[in-house]
C-alpha cells in the first residue's frame, strides 16, 4: 500500500510539471493575455461573427502564403509610444515564419483613437510604408470616424490579404510538423511502449538496449539536417523519459489510464483546431491544471488516511507540521483573508511531502526522474511562427 502511494505521488508530481507546459509555452506580453489567436479584441468591439470571419480569413491566408497577419484591439496604450508599443508586441508575438519574417500586426488603440500597421522585414517590399499609410487613411480611419470599427478592420484585412496574395513570398513549406519534432515525438511514444513492456516483463533489458540503439539511429536519420548530432543525444534521452514515465505509471494502473485519457483529450483538441480556432491555454492548460489539482488533493487524502492507519501519533505530528506551515504562510503573505486563502494551496502542496511515508523512501529508489518533456506545439492558432522581426516598417494614423 505504502509503495503504491509513493508511486502515485511521484506520478502526480510529474503530471504537475507536464500540465504547466502549455502555459509556459504560450506567448504573453505586457497586455497580460496569451498571444495565441489571430484576432484578439480586448475592447469587446467586434461581435462574434465578425471575429470568426476574420480569423478564418487570416487562417486561409496563412495556409496559402505562409504569412501571419494578426489583429489586436486594446483600450489604450497607457501613455506608451504607438510605434514602440506595436513593435514590442510584434516581436513578442513572433509573427511570420522564422527565416522569412512575413508577419503583419494591425493594432487599434480604441480609446486613444490611434491605429498602426506593423510590417515584418519579409513583407516590407510588398506592404510598403506608403501602401500601409493609404490603407489607414483611405479605409480604416474614415470608417472609425463613423463608428464602424468592424467595417474598417474588415476593409484593412481585405487590403492586406490582397497585397500578401500578390506578393512574391517564398514557397510555403510543408505545414506538417518538422522532421525533428516528429522524431522526438516518436521517440517518446516508442519509449513509453518499451517502458510498459519492460514493467510488464514482456521485454528484456538486452532487447531494450538493442532496440534503443536501432531506434536512435533510425530517428536521427529521420530528423536529418545539420543538427543531426544533437538527436543522437536527444532521442535516447526522450526514449528514457517516455520509458521511465510510463513504466512507472504502469505499476499504478489508475494513473496510467488517466494519463492515456489526458493524451486522448489533447489529441482531440489539436484535431479540433484544424477546423476551428482553439485557444490551447483555455482548452488545455486550465482543464489539465484542474485535473492535476483534484488528483493531488485525492492523493493527499489517501496519504492522510494511510498515515492515520499506520500511526495515529505520527499523523498528529504531521498534522501539526502542516498547520504550522499554513500559519506561517498566512502570516508571511498578509493581505487579510486573501493571504490566508492563498496559503491553502501552498500548505496543501507541502503537505504531500510531509505525509509521504518516510520509511518507504530509503528502500527502493525508482529511477523515475523525468527530465524535460519535449512537446511540439504546432499551434495553428497563429500564436507564433518564429518570426517577429520588424525594423519599424509600416504606418500609423489616428481618427
Explain briefly what this protein structure is.
The protein is of the alpha/beta class. 62% of the residues lie in helices and 7% in strands.
Instruction: Work out the number of β strands.
Output: 5
Q: What is the global morphology?
A: flat
Task: Give the structural class.
Answer: alpha/beta
Q: How does the major sheet shape up?
A: 5 strands, mixed
Helix coverage percent of residues?
55-70%
Task: Compute the separation of the termini in Å.
Answer: 70 Å
Which parts are unreliable, with pLDDT below 50 for 5 consecutive residues or more? 9-28, 360-380
Helix-strand pattern: HHEHEHEEHHHHHHHHHHE
Gyration radius from CA atoms, angstroms:
26 Å
Using the coordinates above, name the CATH class of the domain at 42-171.
Alpha Beta
Q: Indicate the CATH architecture of the domain at 42-171.
A: Roll
Mean pLDDT: 79
Strand content: 5-15%
Strand order of the largest sheet: 1-2-3-4-5
CATH topology of the domain at 42-171: Diaminopimelate Epimerase, Chain A, domain 1
Biased composition (Low complexity): 362-383
InterPro entries: TPM_dom
Transmembrane segments: 176-200, 207-224, 230-252, 259-277, 283-303, 315-333, 339-356
Domain TPM: 39-161
Task: Walk me through what this model shows.
- With 399 residues, this protein is of the alpha/beta class.
- Among the domains are: 42-171, Diaminopimelate Epimerase, Chain A, domain 1, CATH 3.10.310.50; 311-363, no CATH class.
- Helices cover 62% and strands 7% of the residues.
- It contains 14 helices and five strands.
- The chain has helices at residues 2-19, 21-25, 48-65, 82-93, 129-145, 149-166, 179-199, 205-223, 228-250, 253-273, 280-310, 312-333, 337-355, 358-361; strands at 39-41, 68-74, 103-109, 114-119, 394-398.
- It has a five-stranded mixed beta sheet with strand order 1-2-3-4-5, with helices on both faces.
- The protein starts with a helix and ends with a strand.
- Residues 9-28 and 360-380 have low confidence and may be disordered.
